[in-house]
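Researcher: Please predict.
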Amino acid sequence: MAYSVHWLRRAEKDLDAIYLFYCQMASEHVAKKRLSKILDTTEIVGYMPNIGQLDESYNHTPTYRYITVLDYRIYYFAEEDVVNIAAIWDCRQGGRVFEDNSY
């Protein structure tokens, strides 16, 4: 059974920022290729929501999982028949993905 994939506002903003960055630093072609790989990975998560590794650094509900693609971790959580894409985090940057419990 395939889950529907829902993008939360934070993840949409992250995706937009990635696209704009690569448009400015490389080209629109490069930006589209990167986004395509990220979007393809989220489709896979929709079919196999337990494929990602549990992120045990966040001990609250929902339970986040992440899957790595390129230089990014896609953070998500599943509820019933929906996979919620919560954030896309550049693994090269420091800090925490979620500074608070908002997503």
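Model: The chain has a mean pLDDT of 89.
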